[in-house]
Amino acid sequence: MSDKKAVLVIGAGDGTGGAIARRFAREGYIACVVRRSADKLAPLVKQIEDAGGVAHAFGCDARKEEEVIKLVDDIERDIAPIEVMVFNIGANVPCSILEETARKYFKIWEMACFSGFLVGREVAKRMVKRGRGTILFTGATASMRGSANFAAFSGAKHGIRALAQSMARELGPMNLHVAHVVVDGSIDTEFIRENFPAKYAMKDQDGILNPDHIAENYWYLHTQPRDAWTHELDLRPWTEKF
């Protein structure tokens, strides 16, 4: 029997998702990284391979059921069993409730919540048969409170938190560890550097989240003994109010 194992990262961007993929690849996991455009994943795949790991890039619109089913089927058949799934899609788009459109609200919900259900369901089907697996959902401040001008994002993030709770209660007794990570604060990314220079200036004081340090906590969750599983973990800089 092959000892190959895969980590599936949905939303493997330049920050948190990429760092998580690199962290698991260092431990011998085959990193299956996903964005809507596979071409954008080339730098991440190269980083992992240059460090001695193995990675495969996939283009997939996680809002589309048929694409998600095919993605999971292809990885399970051609690469390795999915031992860990990380759902890391954001869709943090502010807008006044007075100006929000039904189309944009629905799109944000599809991206940040519905797609999590689709991927979570498909990987859980395989994991239950094997009697093991880890499913991790990335949350945000909006998972805990609905701030002004974030009705759509807050609704989606509240939804993914509820999904994680429901899955944990159903699948935990089947030896599947389902956890939700609240990432509360700005992350060291190109977007923050270019658009919020004052916030980015706090980096030297540990005032923004380091993606590699976030990834370390995802690895910690996956390796927890099941007599002391964490369902919800919150991560924030020491400067962040909560």
Question: How would you explain this protein's 3D organization?
Answer:
With 242 residues, the chain is an alpha/beta fold. The chain has a single domain (6-186, 212-235), classed as Rossmann fold. The chain is 44% helix and 17% strand. A seven-stranded parallel sheet has the order 3-2-1-4-5-6-7, with helices on both faces. Strand 1, helix 1 and strand 2 form a beta-alpha-beta unit. The longest helix is centred in the middle third of the chain and has 29 residues, at 102-130.
Q: Uncertain spans, ≥5 residues at pLDDT below 50?
A: none
User: At the fourth CATH level, what is the homologous superfamily?
Assistant: NAD(P)-binding Rossmann-like Domain
- Structural domains: how many: 1
Number of strands: 7
Order of SSEs: EHEHEHEHEHEHHHE
CATH architecture: 3-Layer(aba) Sandwich
CATH class value: Alpha Beta
Measured by DSSP, the beta-strand proportion falls in 15-25%
Individual helix count: 8
Question: What is the overall shape?
Answer: globular
This entry's quaternary arrangement is single chain
| Cα gyration radius (Å) | 17 Å
The portion of residues assigned to helices is 40-55%
What's the arrangement of strands in the largest beta sheet? 3-2-1-4-5-6-7
**By helix and strand content, what is the structural category?**
alpha/beta
* Largest β-sheet summary: 7 strands, parallel
Roughly how many Å apart are the termini? 48 Å
Mean pLDDT rating:
95
Classify the fold: give the CATH topology. Answer: Rossmann fold
